[in-house]
Structure formats: C-alpha cells, structure tokens
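--- STAGE predict ---
source: upstream dedup step, 1 unique chain passed
mode: sequence only
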Amino acid sequence: MRYNNITEGIFIKRPNRFIAEVEIDGSIERVHVKNTGRLRELLKEGTPVLLEESDKPERKTRYSLIAVYKGSEIVNIDSQAPNKAAYEALKAGKIAEIGKPDAVKSEVTYGGSRFDLYYEKDGKKGFAEVKGVTLDVGGTARFPDAPTERGTKHVRELIKAKAEGYECSILFVIQMNNISLFEPNYDTDPKFAEALAEAAQNGVNVLAYDCVVDRDSMVLDGRVAVKIAETE
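--- STAGE serialize ---
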C-alpha cells in the first residue's frame, strides 16, 4: 500500500473533522484529513506530519494528511489504508489465521452491511471486516477512539453470517508498529466491546496485526495478542 508525492509539514490545528491547518514550507495550508476519528492524542500543535499531494487540480485542498510522527515512529491515520493493506495481505496469504485464499473480493454486501473483504478457500466462503486502529495507550492499541454504531452493526452482522456457515473474522489493522496488545476500548464504546466479546464466543475470529509504516507506505507486519475481556 503505497503513496505518491509525499511531503512533510507541521500540524497547527483542526477546525473540523475533515480539515486541518498545516504549515508546509513556511506557509499555512488547509488540508484534507483522511480520518474522521478524534485523534486527539496524535494531532497536537507543533507535531510533524506527512501529507500526500493530490494530482487533481480541481480539488479544494491540495494535500491530504495521511500520517503523524509520534516521537521517531510514524502512525498512519488514513482511514482507507487499512482496507488496502489488509486486501494485499489476505491475497498474498499473509494473514496466518485465514491462509492463502483461492479468490478475494473487496466491498461485498451481506444482509444490511457491506463487509470489507470476501474470500473463498478450499470450498469455504468467508468474510473479514477491517477496522483501522490509531489509538495507542502505553503499547496497547485500542478501538474505537470514538463511539461507533456502524462498527457494532458490522460485528452483529458477522455473528449472523457465522451462524449461517461462513468463516468470519474481524481484523484490527493497527496503523503503527511496536504494539504488544490489542483490546476493545470499553471506556469509549462499551456496546462495541460487548458485541466483540459476543462475536468471539460465537466463533468469529478476532484478529489484530500491526504494520510497518514508512513515509510512503504501510504493510501488515505481525500478529498482536488480543485481550477481549474487560479488566476487573
């Protein structure tokens, strides 16, 4: 999953979910933020960021904000990147719990939802829903960073699909490296966390992978341990 025309800037502020002001080469630019999450722990004034310059002159914003420096590490914040990275990894057989499928499709409708990935392998059919994760709390990645009714709905649909005979997984793509654990964010969205626990109890695979993130790319790396039960 690769970008083109990358440049660096300094984050100034975020007037709304879709727009940020970034200093680029001494000038303040209004740029598109490719993530509607809160990102409060990442987007702080003075933080170095990475942007992709658009090749479409008709766009209202010339740049898109795709990643943030957290110390020496890069955290990808592009909400479209996890699906692309997961598709590439699944197709190449790099998601160990699934293996190498015979066929892979993206954005496939099931019931009232549209799952990110559909695959066929050894005569079986399966769905995988991908969730990008940008929140790191002391080496533990958490999702979501804001309540997500849509995410809970997807988990419920996966439970239903599993009951109807499909292989089902929810894949948390952690958009950074050096993460030791993934867990649902009970404090922010207990309903999502409860649905995830129910999914695991009903045979839905709950998977987490971190990523190698560079200036112009993001690739799935290794499995990360998952802890679903809430800490007492």
